[in-house]
Design a protein that fits this description.
Rossmann fold; 14 strands; six-stranded parallel sheet; single chain; alpha/beta; 12 helices; eight-stranded mixed sheet; 330 residues; globular
Length: 330
């Protein structure tokens, strides 16, 4: 009997040790992801998050993938759903959804991604640190460099810019673009929209007064990029976009910006760090600063149609070129 008791006690001790040694990768994790709208860039962030966490060995995550379809009221409802479901981590892809999560969730960790200015959006007080339950990744884009790049390709005098008046990131980028145009000697012609259905009319309103369109990482406008492309084609004016992920299939002359799939991977890596025990308040805002994070797309077919010559040095810098209807990746 004593021998059996000894064996039983030894077994129980071993079992307790095994349970104690289980790490975060073996604990059930519930992650809710809310994106403001579905378009290639934000879809790529969503996929990058999942791929990164899978590669890191987190095989027990349950995802709740939600799309607000551009509606702030829907973003708020999704946040309430995540609160009721008690998700462990809530991810906001873009500023409006991140703000909705921040305003609603108090007991879950919040991760923001593809947020242009998290300080201006009220998510964190400083880029140098997160807050108690929130940290994330910014997609602050080099606006002045993008406009200067367009001016190098075509000597523009008036630049048209369409942006969503209800998106904090879009408003912030519009201010940066306006200042950049002032410094570059370009007249800035702006118009605003409140939803994607207004984008085509907005483009038509200013098309006769501009030499080119500049599109920032504005989710409302980018989700309706086809409408801008239609107007630009009819008026024979070029488009410079800050979102290469959404530019491949449309009549965009050039697109220079972040690889949003890589941004998703960076977001997934951040989530992994938190799941392994790091505190959000100790993690500064992550910016995509590596040259490999940037993507430049040049559409030579559009350039030819607009009688714009693309210099060889610019072609060499491009990571993707469209010519004769074919996409060439470098």
């Amino acid at each position: 009997m004593k021998r059996l008791n000894t064996i039983f006690i030894t077994f129980m001790v071993a079992l307790a040790f095994f349970v104690a040694c289980k790490d975060s990768k073996s604990t059930s994790i519930k992650i809710g992801i809310s994106k403001i709208v579905s378009h290639p860039a934000l879809d790529s962030v969503e996929k990058g998050i999942q791929d990164e966490l899978k590669e890191e060995g987190f095989t027990n995550i349950t995802y709740d993938l939600q799309n607000a379809n551009g509606e702030l009221s829907t973003a708020a409802s999704i946040a309430q759903k995540f609160k009721a479901d008690k998700v462990d981590i809530a991810v906001g892809i873009a500023t409006p959804t991140s703000q909705a999560l921040y305003n609603t969730l108090k007991d879950s960790v919040i991760i923001y991604s593809a947020v242009t200015d998290p300080v201006d959006a009220g998510l964190v007080k400083s880029y140098k640190a997160g807050e108690k339950n929130i940290a994330g990744v910014s997609d602050m884009t080099p606006v002045k460099d993008q406009i200067a790049f367009l001016k190098k390709i075509k000597d523009i005098k008036r630049l048209g810019h369409i942006y969503a008046s209800h998106e904090a990131n879009a408003v912030a980028l519009a201010k940066v673009a306006k200042e950049a145009c002032k410094e570059l000697g370009i007249e800035f012609v702006e118009t605003t929209v409140t939803n994607s259905s207004e984008v085509k009319q907005a483009a038509q309103t200013i098309a006769d007064r501009v030499d080119a369109f500049y599109l920032s990482t504005d989710n409302t406008v980018i989700s309706a990029i086809a409408a801008v492309a239609d107007v630009a084609k009819a008026k024979k004016i070029p488009i410079m976009s800050a979102d290469p992920s959404s530019a491949e299939k449309f009549e965009v002359l050039a697109a220079w910006g972040f690889d949003y799939y890589k941004m998703g991977r960076a977001t997934g890596k951040l989530i992994g760090r938190i799941l392994k025990g790091e505190k959000p308040e100790n993690i500064p805002t992550i910016f995509m600063t590596d040259p490999s994070d940037v993507d430049l797309l040049i559409n030579l077919d559009v350039a030819k149609r607009l009688n714009i010559n693309i210099a060889d040095d610019i072609k060499k810098k491009a990571s993707r070129i469209i010519e004769n209807g074919k996409l060439i990746k470098k």
